[in-house]
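Q: What changes when 4'-deoxy-4'-aminopyridoxal-5'-phosphate is included in the input?
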Amino acid sequence: MDLTKHAFFEGKIIPLGEANINIATHGFLYGTAVFGGVRGYWNEEKKRLFVFRPYDHFYRLINSGRMLAMNIPQDENALTQLLLDLLRIDGWQQDVYIRPTIYKADLGIGVRLHNLKDELNMFVIAYEPYVKNDANAHVTVSSWRRIDDNVIPARGKVAGAYANSALIKTDANRAGFDEAIVLDNNGHVSEGSAMNIFMMRNGQLVTPPITDNILEGITRRSIMEIARRELNLEVVERTIDRTELFLADEVFMTGTAAQVVAVTRVDYRNVGGGEMGEVTSKLRTLFDDIVRAKNPAYSDWNVGV
Ligand code: PMP
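A: The predicted holo structure follows.
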């Protein structure tokens, strides 16, 4: 991580190396923070960096904060402008990953949400692939369960809840899998450690509904729209059973960091023919062009720096 790059911290843009919080900070002690994960894509032909759906990402961040009684003065438009300033200062000419966080910033002990001040920060790093094996991932069904809306809201990105994702991811990786699929407390498929899930079954593209304890994924929403508009697919949000993953023709996972990951094996069983399926392959290509601002039909999703 390059600490000379800039960050927004306590109201100012300063070098990342100087953007440090105290060890007694509430958000650090109790995980009372919410965050986002946004990406900027370098377009080589246009020699320009484009941020993908920043307004939607910041809107979700603000909503994640609202669930933890957080208020910040900026709306999604102001946060997008702030991000553009931050990106321009360092003149990034490569794919980047942006991490905004809102956190309970008071110092001291005492677990609660009220009567605490909220701070926003944001930093940018060079992008590194999240799932290396993204063309034929082997995933397992985790023995951990997904946090429930009545435990910690899963629809938003609450920092403390990522201990759940970390348990899921580490056990999967240590057992030799690329990623894990986690079931909710009713035993239904929810999502991955940091990715939403889709399957092709009986000609339909199926994904769990938000009410099955998944993050309101922005890649998920984008892929649903692209599949309908470009591939004329019927896209269905319904509860998915674990064993349907064995019967599906195709399975893939989506996320800002991971993009579209083809899942070709689930717990040692081939998905479909055991290779990346046609729909997954088409969606990967479409998505990559769209995020890099190469498809004018989706230009309202690309914000140029
Ligand atoms: N689920 C979880 C738990 C995540 O952390 C992420 C990554 N933000 C996703 C799904 C994918 O969401 P998005 O497409 O908005 O990045």
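Observations recorded in class: The chain has a mean pLDDT of 96.
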